[in-house]
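thread: overnight batch results

M.L. [08:02]
morning all. the overnight job finished for the chain we discussed friday. pasting input first so we're all looking at the same thing
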Amino acid sequence: MSQGTPGNPERRRFFKVAAGAAAGATAVAALPAAVTGAGGAGTVPPGAGRTPRMAADLQRALGRPAAERRWAMVIDTRRCIGCSACTVACVAENNLPPGVTYRTVPEAEIGSYPDVQRAFMPTNCMQCDKAPCVAAANAVIPGSMKKRPDGIVAIDYAKMRGRRVFEAAKSACPYGAALYYDEGKNHTDGTPALQPYEKRAVIEYGRAWTRKETAGTTRKCHFCAQRLDAGLLPACVATCTGLAMHFGDVADPKSLVAEMLAAGHGRRLEVEKGTSPRVFYVDDWEPEAPATAAPPANRPRVDCMACHSFGR
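M.L. [08:03]
and the structure it wrote out:
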């Protein structure tokens, strides 16, 4: 997007698209409520797609105590087309300020001309079971971060304020782009008027927050906890056009994510760090593929291990 002057119609069009993405994510995630089938909540009719099935998995999980749930995300990089719709949906859902993106889609160029391909690796907070950021932040300001019973790493915006605690948590995280500092900026700063959407409050961690209230805090992905509480899938999952994003309760063996991991294809990033992340990746895992294996028929191979360390 080009840099525009105040009132630039390109800027206005961008923000309209972002707002539309949030509405679309909600519509897609809410759809399964109408197709739960004869079995009631947590069931789908035979032949239903992945999104309705994940929504049904979510309903079953919400029927159990939080301590019995184990939320996890499974990202199939082979399906990611690099459109960044998940990033836009996340920004819109959480009304994120400039410089804060709970979710990014880094890309890498693999090979050399003429045999070149691009690989995309969506990423966000790993929601580690042994999150080093929690201990680091709480050593600076006690109570800044905690691990919820369902596995989500949560921030207390009222406590985790200032650069010092942010830098401590960020330095402890081995995954790079997981934590962001909210500088209190707005997308429409420098224009004739602050737009209404910049002033709206959003629900995070169980209450409504405005941009002014979160200025000076540490921000991160929380699996769209406010949507989970409302029975909706995370915005990135509901918006993914390539069906690369999967979410659910791995404590439920009937859930889609549990089945994907049980098949043995899921890997976690940098397991040697001992953090036990809740985000798993699926790709062609080139080092494990038989030497005689035929290449995929309609796409190049995807091998995230070319750039990163993965393990079970």
